[in-house]
Design brief:
By secondary structure, this protein is mainly alpha-helical. The protein has a domain of about 70 residues. The protein contains 5 helices and no strands. The protein starts with a helix and ends in a 9-residue tail after the last helix. The model has no long low-confidence stretch (mean pLDDT about 75).
Amino acid sequence: MTAVIECLLAVAGAYLAVGVLFAFAFHLRGLRRLDAAAAGAGVGFRMIITPGVIALWPLMALRWWRPAVTSQLLGHAESPVSPRALRWGHQMAWRFLAVLGPMILAAALWWRPQSNSGSPIPGPGAPAALRMPLASRGLP
């Protein structure tokens, strides 16, 4: 079981490492290409969007690559995104998160260590001598 968890952590670490590298390149070249208004944005704006760029780097890479292929930038007045399409996308994202969140929580509870033997706090079934405060046992 620990091998599965270690593998998942390695995959998550690799994903984040690629995201950090992508964010660096995106701030240097991609942001200016994707949104002309953000080209002159300051460091504060870039710091605010960096976590999102790292987390969503595959989508940002697709948006960065798409204009190079189609030679049409996204978000222009000639090709606006309809509110209906945005609502549909948001509904699908929330439904996905509503299913995925409890599944992750259940998996975490299922795979947590069950042993309580290494606990420094004695439980209610421990002998009375162990449940006494440290000062009354003559310890600092």
